[in-house]
Amino acid sequence: MSTPQNCEAASDSEMKARAQDLIANITSVLGRISKASSPTRPVRLVAVSKLKPSSDILALYNAREQTKQEPHFGENYVQELMEKAKELPQEINWHFIGGLQTDKCKKVAAIPNLYAVHSVDSEKKANKLSQTRLSFPDFPKLRVFVQVNTSGEESKSGVEPAETLALAKHIQEKCPGLQLVGLMTIGAIARSKDAENPNEDFLTLKKIRDEIWEPLGCPGPEDLELSMGMSEDYEQAIELGATTVRVGSTIFGLRPKKADAAAKSSAEESKA
């Protein structure tokens, strides 16, 4: 029969093995990012830990000197982000990449080490984020990306491509608590899985960026970042201009099934 000491030792052993797997995974991703990137255009990796335990993030955070990975982590659910931000080191740069409801903007913007929100798709949400951020005078401006629905799918969030410039200008001119840093898209799953053809969603986002940087008063197109690319397509996204990629399952492994994720999201809503 196992003693408590043996159980603890087994747990420690499992934790170490898990940490080694995570480090190997992120090291592989970083190597592929480096290979796909241009020396003059660095690419930021956001490790998306949706529905994974805080211990996974902490393992990678503690190994950052070994992996050379800056501590950028992303979450899709507001409640999960809030809980992890409280538990984990303040030096972590958090990215919120999920669909953002207007009534959750205050909670998100109140997180002190929130680095960026990638999913701003309305003036109302931008206003709420800005107002909340300004209520914390010690906080820096909150970086935001305008999410664009490049695929035209009803299931996807984001502004229509033709509305991108208007929302970006609103953020610049009417939201003093925010800093517009770029554009984001998720895109169609089928296009992400088609490795033989250039992803139309990535090409569309880059085209929009190239059309609006000058009206926005940016010194050059590269001053507007492009957040695009996930586990299945981040290398092609980089080749087509991405400056931030959001990689989850390739680093952390498969997530719970859709039904479990939906149950978690429902539970989150009831807590809010």
From TrEMBL:
The keyword Zinc-finger does not apply. InterPro entries: Ala_racemase_N, PLP-binding_barrel, PyrdxlP_homeostasis. Residues 42-256 form the Alanine racemase N-terminal domain. Keywords: Pyridoxal phosphate. The modification N6-(pyridoxal phosphate)lysine is found at residue 50. One of its GO terms (molecular function) is pyridoxal phosphate binding. Its cofactor is pyridoxal 5'-phosphate. The keyword S-adenosyl-L-methionine does not apply. It comes from the Eukaryota. Belongs to the pyridoxal phosphate-binding protein YggS/PROSC family. PANTHER family: PROLINE SYNTHETASE CO-TRANSCRIBED BACTERIAL HOMOLOG PROTEIN, PYRIDOXAL PHOSPHATE HOMEOSTASIS PROTEIN. NCBIfam families: YggS family pyridoxal phosphate-dependent enzyme. Pyridoxal 5'-phosphate (PLP)-binding protein, which may be involved in intracellular homeostatic regulation of pyridoxal 5'-phosphate (PLP), the active form of vitamin B6. This is Pyridoxal phosphate homeostasis protein. It comes from Ascobolus immersus RN42.
